[in-house]
Amino acid sequence: HGACAGFPRTLGQAEVLDRICELDLVISLNIPFETLKDRLSARWVHPASGRVYNMDFNPPHVQGIDDLTGEPLVQREDDKPEAVAARLRKYKDAAKPVIELYKSRGILHSFSGTETNKIWPYVYTLLSSKIPPVVSDEEK
């Protein structure tokens, strides 16, 4: 979930993946550190019910207050900005050799931006150029 949903994240995982299949295309999304930190820190919870709010995507009606009970929302320790920043730095260090590996094989394609809907058309175009169109039986 979130920024660290990518795979493989470490060199060890990349080696395991190599044994299973041969990759011919790897996509790397370069999203600014601050953007990731803000997004990942946007999660707040209502402890009693486990209801989760995201300040960007589904904020509570009143900031910091649970919609149903009116009780205060809290941020989990690992969602606090400092903890998220530390997690991102650790992730970046582990992912760097993986990026270098695929770059050296000539199969890495990098895309930069802050919004999925702006990056996606470029990713889609790349994938469309690599994957032959599916032809239905009727068209054959």
Automatic annotation (TrEMBL):
It holds the Pfam family ADK_lid. Gene3D superfamilies: P-loop containing nucleotide triphosphate hydrolases. SUPFAM superfamilies: Microbial and mitochondrial ADK, insert 'zinc finger' domain (SSF57774), P-loop containing nucleoside triphosphate hydrolases (SSF52540). One of its GO terms (molecular function) is ATP binding. Residues 43-78 form the Adenylate kinase active site lid domain. InterPro entries: Adenylat/UMP-CMP_kin, Adenylate_kinase_lid-dom, ADK_active_lid_dom_sf, P-loop_NTPase. Keywords: Kinase, Nucleotide-binding, Transferase. Belongs to the adenylate kinase family. This is KAD4 kinase. It comes from Baryphthengus martii.
